[in-house]
C-alpha cells in the first residue's frame, strides 16, 4: 500500500498550491504519485447533460468511467471507504498518495498549511500533524517549513516516506518527526 500524506488547513490557506508544487518536485524525481482531494462542495459537474457519460448517469448508472487518450475520469457514488482504503483502491501502483483535506483521517500523517493567524490551530485539534507550513511566527518546536519551501517539504517526504516504505507501517508514519 502506498504511503498517504494529507495537506490540511483552513479555506484559502494555500493547500492546493503547496501540494501541487510538492507533487511537481516528486514527479521530477521519478516518483509515481496519486492525488485524492476532499471537498465539501456538492454538485461539481464532471460532464455535461447531453454527453454520453451524462446520459449514462441520468439513466441511473452507479458509476461512469471515461477513458480518453489524455485522461481517465471515474465518477461514482462515494464508496464509504476511509482515506487509506480509498488510496489503495485508486492508486495501488503509486509510490505515494498526496491527499488534500481529510483532517480527521486516522493513521494518516498530515502537513498543516497555515496563513491566517486568527484561525484555530489544527495541530491542536487533529492527530497526525507531522509538520506545519507557515510564514507566521509560531511558538512550537515541531517541524516547520516556510510557504516557499516546497522543495524542502518534498525532500522530507521523500526521505521519510519513500525510502524503505515496504518496511514502514501506517502507524509509524504518524510518529513524531525527528527534530530539524
Please describe what this structure looks like.
By secondary structure, this protein is of the alpha/beta class. The chain has a single domain, classed as 3-Layer(aba) Sandwich (Rossmann fold). It is 25% helix and 22% strand. It has helices at 15-28, 52-58, 83-90, 150-161, 170-173; strands at 4-8, 33-37, 63-68, 71-76, 96-100, 110-114, 129-134, 144-145. A 6-stranded parallel beta sheet has the order 2-5-1-6-7-8. Helix 1 (15-28) crosses helix 4. The chain is globular, with a radius of gyration of 18 Å. The model is unreliable at 165-173 and 176-180 (pLDDT under 50).
Number of helices: 5
* Overall shape: globular
Q: How much helical structure, as a percent, in the residues?
A: 25-40%
End-to-end span in angstroms? 28 Å
Radius of gyration: 18 Å
Q: Please, what is the CATH homologous superfamily?
A: P-loop containing nucleotide triphosphate hydrolases
Q: Assign the CATH architecture.
A: 3-Layer(aba) Sandwich
CATH class: Alpha Beta
Please identify the structural class as seen in this structure: alpha/beta
Strand order in the sheet with the most strands: 2-5-1-6-7-8
Helix and strand string, N-terminal first? EHEHEEHEEEEHH
Number of strands: 8
CATH fold node name: Rossmann fold
Q: Characterize the biggest β-sheet.
A: 6 strands, parallel
What count of domains describes the coordinates? 1
β-strand percent reads 15-25%
Amino acid at each position: 500500500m502506498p504511503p498517504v500524506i494529507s495537506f490540511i488547513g483552513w479555506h484559502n490557506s494555500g493547500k492546493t498550491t503547496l501540494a501541487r508544487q510538492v507533487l511537481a518536485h516528486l514527479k521530477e524525481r521519478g516518483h509515481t504519485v496519486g492525488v485524492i482531494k476532499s471537498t465539501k462542495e456538492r454538485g461539481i459537474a464532471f460532464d455535461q447533460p447531453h454527453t454520453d457519460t451524462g446520459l449514462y448517469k441520468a439513466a441511473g448508472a452507479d458509476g461512469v468511467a471515461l477513458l480518453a487518450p489524455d485522461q481517465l475520469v471515474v465518477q461514482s457514488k462515494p464508496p464509504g471507504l476511509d482515506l487509506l482504503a480509498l488510496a489503495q483502491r485508486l492508486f495501488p501502483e503509486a509510490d505515494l498518495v498526496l491527499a488534500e483535506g481529510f483532517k480527521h483521517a486516522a493513521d494518516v500523517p498530515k502537513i498543516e498549511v497555515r496563513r491566517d493567524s486568527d484561525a484555530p490551530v489544527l495541530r491542536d485539534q487533529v492527530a497526525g500533524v507531522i509538520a506545519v507550513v507557515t510564514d507566521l511566527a509560531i511558538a512550537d518546536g515541531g517541524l516547520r517549513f516556510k510557504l516557499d519551501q516546497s522543495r524542502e517539504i518534498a525532500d522530507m517526504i521523500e526521505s521519510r516516506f519513500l525510502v524503505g516504505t515496504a518496511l514502514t507501517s501506517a502507524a509509524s508514519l504518524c510518529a513524531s518527526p525527528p527534530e530539524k
